[in-house]
Amino acid sequence: MPPRVVIYKGTYQYGAVNLFADEIAEGFRKLGRETVFVDLTDTSALQSNLSKAFSGSNVEFILSFNAAGYCFELNAKSLYDSLPFPFFAFLVDHPAHHLDRLRFNNIIISAMDRSHVHFLNNYFKGSKKVFFMPHGGCRSSLAGTPREKKIDVLFPASYMDMDEELTKIKSLEPFSQKLIYDSVDIILKNDAIPIEDALETIGRGLGINIYEGKIFYKMASEIINKIETLVRAIKRTEMLKILDDAGIAVDIYGNGWPENRFKSHRVHKALPFNEINDLMTESRIVINAANIADGAHERVFTTMLNGSLCLSDYNPYLAETFREDSEIVFYRWTKITGMPDIITKLLADNELLENISLNGAAVASASHKWEHRAAQLIKIVEESK
Protein backbone atom coordinates (compact mmCIF):
# COMPACT_ATOMS: atom_id res chain seq x y z
CA MET A 1 0.00 0.00 0.00
CA PRO A 2 1.64 3.30 -1.08
CA PRO A 3 2.07 6.15 1.40
CA ARG A 4 -0.86 8.56 1.29
CA VAL A 5 -0.68 12.35 1.18
CA VAL A 6 -3.88 14.14 2.18
CA ILE A 7 -4.15 17.53 0.48
CA TYR A 8 -6.59 20.21 1.56
CA LYS A 9 -8.29 22.46 -0.97
CA GLY A 10 -10.25 25.66 -0.28
CA THR A 11 -11.20 29.03 -1.71
CA TYR A 12 -8.34 31.22 -2.92
CA GLN A 13 -8.00 34.38 -5.03
CA TYR A 14 -7.94 33.66 -8.78
CA GLY A 15 -8.01 29.90 -8.07
CA ALA A 16 -4.21 29.81 -7.94
CA VAL A 17 -3.60 27.75 -4.82
CA ASN A 18 -5.93 24.92 -5.82
CA LEU A 19 -3.95 24.64 -9.05
CA PHE A 20 -0.79 24.46 -6.94
CA ALA A 21 -2.44 21.57 -5.08
CA ASP A 22 -3.23 19.75 -8.32
CA GLU A 23 0.32 20.13 -9.62
CA ILE A 24 2.13 19.14 -6.44
CA ALA A 25 -0.21 16.13 -6.18
CA GLU A 26 0.98 14.99 -9.60
CA GLY A 27 4.52 15.30 -8.29
CA PHE A 28 3.67 13.14 -5.28
CA ARG A 29 2.13 10.51 -7.53
CA LYS A 30 5.29 10.39 -9.65
CA LEU A 31 7.14 9.64 -6.41
CA GLY A 32 4.90 6.68 -5.62
CA ARG A 33 2.43 8.39 -3.30
CA GLU A 34 -1.32 8.04 -3.21
CA THR A 35 -3.00 11.46 -3.03
CA VAL A 36 -6.39 12.23 -1.53
CA PHE A 37 -7.99 15.69 -1.76
CA VAL A 38 -10.29 17.08 0.91
CA ASP A 39 -12.42 20.05 -0.13
CA LEU A 40 -12.74 22.24 2.96
CA THR A 41 -15.58 24.20 1.36
CA ASP A 42 -17.79 21.10 1.18
CA THR A 43 -18.97 21.51 4.75
CA SER A 44 -21.86 19.03 4.50
CA ALA A 45 -19.52 16.13 3.76
CA LEU A 46 -16.39 17.41 5.48
CA GLN A 47 -16.42 15.14 8.54
CA SER A 48 -17.02 12.08 6.41
CA ASN A 49 -14.35 13.06 3.89
CA LEU A 50 -11.77 13.68 6.61
CA SER A 51 -12.53 10.32 8.22
CA LYS A 52 -12.05 8.54 4.90
CA ALA A 53 -8.86 10.46 4.12
CA PHE A 54 -7.32 9.67 7.51
CA SER A 55 -8.37 6.01 7.55
CA GLY A 56 -5.79 3.28 7.30
CA SER A 57 -2.19 3.15 8.44
CA ASN A 58 -0.57 4.54 5.31
CA VAL A 59 -1.18 8.30 5.76
CA GLU A 60 2.22 10.00 5.54
CA PHE A 61 1.18 13.62 6.14
CA ILE A 62 -1.42 16.31 5.50
CA LEU A 63 -0.53 19.17 3.15
CA SER A 64 -2.36 22.46 3.58
CA PHE A 65 -1.55 25.75 1.87
CA ASN A 66 -1.53 28.60 4.38
CA ALA A 67 -2.60 26.08 7.03
CA ALA A 68 -6.23 26.07 5.90
CA GLY A 69 -8.24 23.69 8.08
CA TYR A 70 -6.05 24.42 11.10
CA CYS A 71 -9.05 24.95 13.39
CA PHE A 72 -10.37 21.37 13.65
CA GLU A 73 -10.48 20.14 17.24
CA LEU A 74 -10.88 16.90 19.13
CA ASN A 75 -11.71 16.99 22.86
CA ALA A 76 -11.07 20.76 22.99
CA LYS A 77 -7.55 20.34 21.56
CA SER A 78 -6.14 20.54 18.07
CA LEU A 79 -7.17 17.51 16.04
CA TYR A 80 -3.67 17.36 14.54
CA ASP A 81 -1.94 16.87 17.90
CA SER A 82 -3.85 13.61 18.22
CA LEU A 83 -2.83 12.27 14.80
CA PRO A 84 0.20 10.01 14.21
CA PHE A 85 1.22 11.91 11.07
CA PRO A 86 2.21 15.58 10.67
CA PHE A 87 0.36 18.58 9.28
CA PHE A 88 2.53 20.36 6.71
CA ALA A 89 1.67 24.07 6.38
CA PHE A 90 2.97 25.36 3.06
CA LEU A 91 2.83 29.14 3.44
CA VAL A 92 2.32 31.15 0.27
CA ASP A 93 2.13 34.53 2.05
CA HIS A 94 4.01 36.29 4.82
CA PRO A 95 3.59 34.23 8.01
CA ALA A 96 2.35 37.30 9.91
CA HIS A 97 -0.97 36.75 8.10
CA HIS A 98 -1.36 33.27 9.55
CA LEU A 99 0.31 33.06 12.97
CA ASP A 100 -2.81 31.93 14.82
CA ARG A 101 -3.04 28.96 12.46
CA LEU A 102 0.40 27.63 13.36
CA ARG A 103 0.20 27.20 17.13
CA PHE A 104 -0.44 23.45 17.51
CA ASN A 105 2.50 21.09 17.99
CA ASN A 106 2.26 18.47 15.26
CA ILE A 107 3.12 20.87 12.46
CA ILE A 108 5.89 21.43 9.92
CA ILE A 109 6.02 24.87 8.29
CA SER A 110 7.57 26.03 5.05
CA ALA A 111 8.06 29.67 4.08
CA MET A 112 8.67 31.12 0.62
CA ASP A 113 11.22 33.69 1.84
CA ARG A 114 14.35 32.99 3.86
CA SER A 115 13.65 36.03 6.02
CA HIS A 116 10.25 34.51 6.88
CA VAL A 117 12.05 31.48 8.33
CA HIS A 118 14.02 33.83 10.58
CA PHE A 119 10.80 35.60 11.56
CA LEU A 120 9.02 32.35 12.46
CA ASN A 121 11.96 31.03 14.44
CA ASN A 122 12.00 34.24 16.45
CA TYR A 123 8.25 34.34 16.93
CA PHE A 124 7.97 30.73 18.10
CA LYS A 125 11.37 30.83 19.85
CA GLY A 126 12.66 27.87 17.86
CA SER A 127 9.88 25.53 18.97
CA LYS A 128 8.56 24.84 15.45
CA LYS A 129 10.05 22.93 12.52
CA VAL A 130 10.42 25.66 9.91
CA PHE A 131 11.95 25.35 6.43
CA PHE A 132 12.51 27.52 3.39
CA MET A 133 10.60 26.51 0.27
CA PRO A 134 9.65 28.89 -2.53
CA HIS A 135 6.60 28.35 -4.66
CA GLY A 136 6.74 26.13 -7.73
CA GLY A 137 5.91 27.21 -11.26
CA CYS A 138 2.83 26.22 -13.27
CA ARG A 139 2.97 25.45 -16.99
CA SER A 140 0.07 26.26 -19.27
CA SER A 141 -1.24 23.51 -21.55
CA LEU A 142 -0.51 25.93 -24.39
CA ALA A 143 3.20 26.23 -23.55
CA GLY A 144 5.65 24.49 -25.84
CA THR A 145 3.64 25.10 -29.00
CA PRO A 146 4.36 28.05 -31.32
CA ARG A 147 2.42 31.07 -30.05
CA GLU A 148 2.05 34.55 -31.49
CA LYS A 149 3.46 37.05 -29.00
CA LYS A 150 0.55 39.51 -29.00
CA ILE A 151 1.49 41.20 -25.71
CA ASP A 152 4.74 43.09 -25.23
CA VAL A 153 4.55 43.59 -21.46
CA LEU A 154 2.14 41.76 -19.15
CA PHE A 155 1.53 42.65 -15.50
CA PRO A 156 -0.90 40.35 -13.67
CA ALA A 157 -1.58 41.93 -10.27
CA SER A 158 -4.35 43.31 -8.10
CA TYR A 159 -4.75 47.04 -7.52
CA MET A 160 -3.86 48.41 -4.11
CA ASP A 161 -5.13 51.85 -3.17
CA MET A 162 -2.35 53.76 -1.43
CA ASP A 163 -4.72 56.36 0.06
CA GLU A 164 -6.95 53.64 1.46
CA GLU A 165 -3.98 51.97 3.12
CA LEU A 166 -2.81 55.27 4.61
CA THR A 167 -6.28 55.85 6.07
CA LYS A 168 -6.15 52.46 7.80
CA ILE A 169 -2.75 53.26 9.26
CA LYS A 170 -3.94 56.63 10.59
CA SER A 171 -6.49 54.80 12.75
CA LEU A 172 -3.69 53.09 14.71
CA GLU A 173 -2.00 54.44 17.82
CA PRO A 174 0.95 56.84 17.27
CA PHE A 175 3.62 54.26 18.24
CA SER A 176 2.38 51.81 15.61
CA GLN A 177 2.18 54.56 13.00
CA LYS A 178 5.78 55.56 13.68
CA LEU A 179 7.02 51.99 13.33
CA ILE A 180 5.15 51.63 10.04
CA TYR A 181 6.17 54.93 8.43
CA ASP A 182 9.80 54.72 9.50
CA SER A 183 10.07 51.10 8.34
CA VAL A 184 8.50 51.91 4.97
CA ASP A 185 11.03 54.72 4.57
CA ILE A 186 13.91 52.28 5.13
CA ILE A 187 12.45 49.67 2.78
CA LEU A 188 12.01 52.22 -0.01
CA LYS A 189 15.68 53.19 0.28
CA ASN A 190 16.79 49.60 -0.42
CA ASP A 191 16.37 47.10 -3.22
CA ALA A 192 15.55 44.10 -1.04
CA ILE A 193 15.34 44.34 2.73
CA PRO A 194 13.06 42.21 4.91
CA ILE A 195 10.32 44.06 6.77
CA GLU A 196 11.61 42.60 10.02
CA ASP A 197 15.11 43.99 9.42
CA ALA A 198 13.67 47.45 8.87
CA LEU A 199 11.64 47.15 12.08
CA GLU A 200 14.69 45.90 13.96
CA THR A 201 16.65 48.95 12.82
CA ILE A 202 13.86 51.27 13.97
CA GLY A 203 13.63 49.40 17.26
CA ARG A 204 17.33 49.81 18.00
CA GLY A 205 16.99 53.55 17.41
CA LEU A 206 14.14 53.65 19.94
CA GLY A 207 15.97 51.47 22.43
CA ILE A 208 13.56 48.55 22.15
CA ASN A 209 13.86 44.94 21.09
CA ILE A 210 11.10 44.17 18.59
CA TYR A 211 11.34 40.46 19.42
CA GLU A 212 10.26 40.97 23.00
CA GLY A 213 6.79 39.99 24.22
CA LYS A 214 3.99 42.45 23.57
CA ILE A 215 5.96 44.51 21.05
CA PHE A 216 6.63 41.44 18.93
CA TYR A 217 2.99 40.38 19.07
CA LYS A 218 1.87 43.86 18.01
CA MET A 219 4.42 43.86 15.22
CA ALA A 220 3.33 40.44 14.00
CA SER A 221 -0.42 40.88 14.31
CA GLU A 222 -0.86 44.51 13.29
CA ILE A 223 2.19 46.24 11.87
CA ILE A 224 3.85 43.88 9.38
CA ASN A 225 0.71 43.42 7.28
CA LYS A 226 0.25 47.20 7.04
CA ILE A 227 3.87 47.74 6.00
CA GLU A 228 3.71 44.96 3.43
CA THR A 229 0.52 46.29 1.84
CA LEU A 230 1.60 49.94 1.84
CA VAL A 231 5.00 49.16 0.28
CA ARG A 232 3.35 47.06 -2.40
CA ALA A 233 0.84 49.83 -3.16
CA ILE A 234 3.57 52.48 -3.37
CA LYS A 235 5.85 50.40 -5.58
CA ARG A 236 3.14 49.26 -7.99
CA THR A 237 1.76 52.78 -8.31
CA GLU A 238 5.16 54.39 -8.91
CA MET A 239 6.44 51.68 -11.28
CA LEU A 240 3.37 51.87 -13.50
CA LYS A 241 3.42 55.68 -13.47
CA ILE A 242 7.04 55.74 -14.63
CA LEU A 243 6.31 53.29 -17.44
CA ASP A 244 3.13 55.15 -18.38
CA ASP A 245 4.93 58.49 -18.52
CA ALA A 246 7.59 56.90 -20.75
CA GLY A 247 4.91 55.67 -23.16
CA ILE A 248 5.54 51.98 -22.50
CA ALA A 249 2.20 50.20 -22.67
CA VAL A 250 1.60 47.47 -20.12
CA ASP A 251 -1.34 45.07 -20.24
CA ILE A 252 -2.63 44.91 -16.65
CA TYR A 253 -4.88 42.07 -15.49
CA GLY A 254 -6.24 42.03 -11.96
CA ASN A 255 -8.92 43.12 -9.53
CA GLY A 256 -9.70 46.74 -8.75
CA TRP A 257 -7.66 48.74 -11.28
CA PRO A 258 -9.22 52.12 -12.22
CA GLU A 259 -9.90 52.06 -15.95
CA ASN A 260 -8.98 55.67 -16.72
CA ARG A 261 -5.86 55.99 -14.58
CA PHE A 262 -3.29 55.57 -17.37
CA LYS A 263 -2.74 57.02 -20.81
CA SER A 264 -0.56 54.18 -22.16
CA HIS A 265 -1.45 51.07 -20.18
CA ARG A 266 -4.40 48.83 -20.96
CA VAL A 267 -6.45 47.66 -17.98
CA HIS A 268 -8.28 44.34 -18.32
CA LYS A 269 -10.65 42.46 -16.05
CA ALA A 270 -9.21 39.89 -13.68
CA LEU A 271 -8.84 36.37 -15.09
CA PRO A 272 -8.54 32.99 -13.38
CA PHE A 273 -4.98 31.88 -12.68
CA ASN A 274 -4.87 29.29 -15.46
CA GLU A 275 -5.99 31.86 -18.05
CA ILE A 276 -3.24 34.25 -16.93
CA ASN A 277 -0.79 31.40 -17.52
CA ASP A 278 -2.20 31.04 -21.03
CA LEU A 279 -1.64 34.77 -21.59
CA MET A 280 2.00 34.38 -20.58
CA THR A 281 2.54 32.11 -23.58
CA GLU A 282 1.49 35.09 -25.75
CA SER A 283 3.63 37.65 -23.88
CA ARG A 284 7.20 38.74 -24.52
CA ILE A 285 7.86 40.13 -21.05
CA VAL A 286 6.06 39.49 -17.73
CA ILE A 287 6.70 41.85 -14.82
CA ASN A 288 7.10 40.28 -11.38
CA ALA A 289 6.58 42.84 -8.59
CA ALA A 290 6.18 40.53 -5.61
CA ASN A 291 8.26 42.61 -3.17
CA ILE A 292 9.73 39.47 -1.65
CA ALA A 293 12.98 40.24 0.14
CA ASP A 294 14.76 36.89 -0.16
CA GLY A 295 12.72 34.16 -1.80
CA ALA A 296 10.34 33.53 -4.69
CA HIS A 297 6.69 33.72 -5.64
CA GLU A 298 5.35 31.35 -8.29
CA ARG A 299 5.18 34.22 -10.81
CA VAL A 300 8.90 34.04 -11.57
CA PHE A 301 8.92 30.32 -12.37
CA THR A 302 5.51 30.30 -14.04
CA THR A 303 6.56 33.11 -16.38
CA MET A 304 9.62 31.17 -17.44
CA LEU A 305 7.81 27.85 -17.86
CA ASN A 306 5.34 29.58 -20.18
CA GLY A 307 7.98 30.99 -22.49
CA SER A 308 8.15 34.63 -21.42
CA LEU A 309 11.03 36.71 -20.16
CA CYS A 310 10.75 37.38 -16.44
CA LEU A 311 11.47 41.00 -15.53
CA SER A 312 11.59 40.81 -11.76
CA ASP A 313 12.32 43.00 -8.79
CA TYR A 314 15.72 42.02 -7.44
CA ASN A 315 16.34 39.88 -4.38
CA PRO A 316 19.34 37.79 -3.23
CA TYR A 317 17.66 34.39 -3.61
CA LEU A 318 16.72 35.05 -7.22
CA ALA A 319 20.20 36.41 -7.92
CA GLU A 320 21.68 33.16 -6.56
CA THR A 321 19.23 31.01 -8.54
CA PHE A 322 19.36 32.66 -11.97
CA ARG A 323 22.09 34.34 -14.00
CA GLU A 324 21.21 38.00 -14.41
CA ASP A 325 20.66 39.14 -18.01
CA SER A 326 21.05 35.55 -19.19
CA GLU A 327 18.14 33.71 -17.48
CA ILE A 328 16.32 36.58 -15.79
CA VAL A 329 16.34 40.38 -15.94
CA PHE A 330 16.15 42.42 -12.76
CA TYR A 331 14.94 45.92 -12.14
CA ARG A 332 15.98 47.53 -8.89
CA TRP A 333 13.75 49.77 -6.83
CA THR A 334 16.57 52.20 -6.08
CA LYS A 335 16.98 52.62 -9.84
CA ILE A 336 13.31 52.36 -10.80
CA THR A 337 13.50 55.37 -13.13
CA GLY A 338 15.70 53.23 -15.38
CA MET A 339 13.00 50.58 -15.87
CA PRO A 340 11.68 52.08 -19.14
CA ASP A 341 15.16 51.80 -20.67
CA ILE A 342 15.43 48.15 -19.63
CA ILE A 343 12.12 47.29 -21.31
CA THR A 344 12.83 49.37 -24.41
CA LYS A 345 16.19 47.63 -24.98
CA LEU A 346 14.68 44.17 -24.49
CA LEU A 347 11.78 44.79 -26.88
CA ALA A 348 14.21 46.15 -29.49
CA ASP A 349 16.41 43.03 -29.40
CA ASN A 350 14.22 40.04 -30.10
CA GLU A 351 17.12 37.57 -30.24
CA LEU A 352 18.34 38.60 -26.80
CA LEU A 353 14.81 38.51 -25.39
CA GLU A 354 14.17 35.03 -26.76
CA ASN A 355 17.51 33.68 -25.53
CA ILE A 356 16.89 34.92 -21.98
CA SER A 357 13.38 33.43 -22.09
CA LEU A 358 14.69 30.05 -23.24
CA ASN A 359 17.50 30.00 -20.69
CA GLY A 360 15.14 30.89 -17.86
CA ALA A 361 12.68 28.21 -18.96
CA ALA A 362 15.44 25.59 -18.91
CA VAL A 363 16.37 26.37 -15.30
CA ALA A 364 12.75 26.56 -14.15
CA SER A 365 11.88 23.30 -15.91
CA ALA A 366 14.85 21.51 -14.35
CA SER A 367 14.41 22.69 -10.76
CA HIS A 368 11.36 24.83 -10.03
CA LYS A 369 8.14 23.05 -10.96
CA TRP A 370 5.72 21.85 -8.32
CA GLU A 371 6.96 18.28 -8.81
CA HIS A 372 10.35 19.47 -7.55
CA ARG A 373 8.67 20.96 -4.48
CA ALA A 374 6.93 17.61 -3.91
CA ALA A 375 10.29 15.85 -3.70
CA GLN A 376 11.71 18.52 -1.37
CA LEU A 377 8.64 18.34 0.84
CA ILE A 378 8.79 14.56 1.20
CA LYS A 379 12.47 14.82 2.14
CA ILE A 380 11.64 17.40 4.84
CA VAL A 381 8.89 15.21 6.28
CA GLU A 382 11.16 12.16 6.37
CA GLU A 383 13.99 14.08 8.00
CA SER A 384 11.61 15.59 10.58
CA LYS A 385 10.55 12.25 12.04
Please mark out the parts with pLDDT under 50 across 5 or more consecutive residues, or reply none.
none
Task: Supply the number of helical segments.
Answer: 13
| DSSP, total strands | 14
Query: Helix- and strand-based class?
Result: alpha/beta
Beta fraction of the residues?
A: 15-25%
Note down, in words, how this protein is organized.
This protein is an alpha/beta fold. It folds into 2 domains: 4-136 and 369-383, Glycogen Phosphorylase B (Rossmann fold, 3-Layer(aba) Sandwich); 151-171 and 223-367, Glycogen Phosphorylase B (Rossmann fold, 3-Layer(aba) Sandwich). The chain contains 13 helices and 14 strands. It has helices spanning 16-30, 46-54, 114-123, 162-170, 174-187, 195-206, 213-245, 273-280, 298-305, 316-321, 339-348, 350-367, 370-383, and strands spanning 4-9, 34-39, 59-65, 73-74, 77-78, 87-90, 107-111, 129-132, 151-156, 251-253, 266-268, 283-288, 309-313, 329-331. The strands form 3 sheets. Strands 2-1-3-6-7-8 form a 6-stranded parallel β-sheet, with helices on both faces. The chain has a 6-stranded parallel β-sheet with strand order 11-10-9-12-13-14, with helices on both faces. The longest helix has 33 residues, at 213-245. The chain is globular. The model has no long low-confidence stretch (mean pLDDT 94).
